[in-house]
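Re: [help] complex structure
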Amino acid sequence: MNKGEQLYSGKAKSVFRTDDPERLILHFRNDTSAFDGVKLAQLERKGEMNNRINAFIMQKLEAAGVQTHFIEQLGPEESLVRRLDMVRVECVVRNVVAGSLSKRLGIEEGLVLDEPVFEFFLKDDALHDPMINESHIRVFGWASEEETAGMHRLSHTVNGVLKPLFADAGIMLVDFKLEFGRADGQLVLGDEFTPDGCRLWDAQTHKKLDKDRFRRDLGEVVESYREVARRLGVPLDD
Ligand code: ADP
Ligand code: UDP
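Output below.
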């Protein structure tokens, strides 16, 4: 698969065309950002760790019947994916109170929820990804009602697959963000599932094993991602 021109370079990944217009290459970079790009760093081998964890998780989701854009891992930092028309909405599922939910509602971080909370955010860095609801999505035309219901349903399905997968590895899946896109009229899971876009706590000690280590200057960021990979059984060499 030949790598073509760069289509887009985001905060953590670059997207390249291939000779097939329906396929793209995602390059997971070492760039790490937080607070809408205000805090930036290069973390050695983060791109590789994320690409490998993402490939592993996407394959688990496919095996469980969730349609994803993932086709194959091409190298340590790159994967081949289906090109999607991305929905400008981020879907967040929370099993435990943390981050913006804790701040917004003044509820202590760590409260285990009786059932998952689901939230939509508009993907817009300049506006700091504001929280939105089904009504905003419908009225402003960001997705159809069917797609909105589909994103909600599929996000819960993903939680149902991944929460026990992480639990078996001694890790609490606290919360996570998903992005969906369209291909052939179908809703498909796109983007990534990595410790950059979720919260993962050691089940016993509640040690953070995700990007909060970077956000909160806790150190050992990539080491923690590697620990997640090791516990999940993600292959770490080709
Ligand atoms: P951001 O844009 O938030 O800075 P990234 O650095 O991760 O994020 O950039 C990757 C970009 O690629 C994101 O905007 C994401 O929506 C987009 N993307 C992810 N998967 C696909 C796909 N299969 N087809 C098209 N675009 C995609
Ligand atoms: N998240 C993300 N990208 C975003 C916003 C959130 O990957 O643009 C993830 C984040 O890592 C966490 C979950 O979504 O796992 C919920 O994030 P939250 O709303 O608590 O925001 P935060 O405090 O992390 O900015």
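The first helix runs from residue 46 to 63.
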